[in-house]
Amino acid sequence: MVLLTGVLATALLAGGVAAYPIPYVVLEPGPTVDTLGKDVIKVTGADTSASAGQLRLTTIGVRTEITLPEALGAWADDDRALVPRTVVYPPGLSDQQVEDKNAESFSTSQRNAEAVARREVGRPFQVTFGAEDIGGPSAGLMFTLGLIDKLTPADLTGGRIIAGTGTVDEAGKVGRISGIPQKLLGAKAAGAQIFLVPADNCAEAVRNAVPGLPMAKVATVDDGLAALRTFTAGGTPPPCPGSP
Length: 244
Known about the structure:
By secondary structure, the chain is α/β, with parallel strands linked by helices. Helix content is about 35%, strand content about 20%. It starts with a helix and ends in a 12-residue tail after the last helix.
């Protein structure tokens, strides 16, 4: 933080550059999407059920081409993060290549969600996923839970609003993601009553805990299902260690 302050201060002293983009981007809370909503997960070839609550995937917004005054404003705002552009757009890759990579990761997360759900419910079906504007692999957990909820008679939400994030591999393991602080804020703004946190993100999540938003530690899809059942029955799922 001291180094960043020095860089920005030096830039301020170099007059005439305030209106030009600088090599940083701003991360901020992005929209959340209810995976049980219309057209987000479409299932054919199997009976489906409706749920009274919501299972919301979370995203981060990335603002590029920011000017120095905008960077300073983001640096002073606890709800946003100012990071080097190379964190989001690695050197050697064009912006389009990064977008293509995120799109492929998103498709992989959907395929993994389908594989895990198929194993969980034990019957054939066809599925298509919506939310095409989202990239990256971090929607995997919530897509998997949403698909399982649609394919099982029980309402896994219990009428609650549940948010979360995390990658999912074909074995059902939940992996770490980026942007936890912004995703927690986005979930709270969407009315979430609990947030499912990948186990490997727990320490970061605890440091950025949002008042009024409990967090449950999730290492596998089975952990996520257990957390839903416990929470909707009135219990407290295993939290991230150190959670308030």
